[in-house]
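Schema walk-through. Below, the input block comes first and the output block second. Nothing else is stored per chain. Lengths vary across the set, and this one has 159 residues.
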Amino acid sequence: MWVKIQLRDFRRHFTGSGFTMLEVIAVLVILGILSAVAISRVSGLGASLYADADRLAADLRYAQSLSMINAFRAGEDNTVLISINADGWGFDDDGWRFADGEAQRSTSRGVSITGSDVAFKYPSGNVDSDADVNIKLQKGNTDIDVKVHGITGYVEVLR
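--- output ---
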């Protein structure tokens, strides 16, 4: 009898004093959204590094295509040279321009770039030396390599 009374008191005390499933799900959804925002802000610190690496790779591919399609440009050798310097990269002073009309690119603030120049040659667009060219972009403790394969001229971003 004493057990039945104690169980009845227990049920009376805790009935209706919990969270509904809807409330628990709502809290979990809110926590998920807040954590996604926090993670994107923390990981966004290297966004300019990834953007610079992608832009460099796109510009190298563009220079490669220029070397392949401009076969007979006023009797010149059709090597297209992209110079890499401490501030960024760009065409050597040959009158070449990127698709947006610019000849030089600057890295984003805090991003450093190291590597050697890349010369694409006609007709296959491969690198002038046939040796792979590695270009490193770095920001803080994070770095990304952009590799140009010498024999084929294939441009690859290594993360």
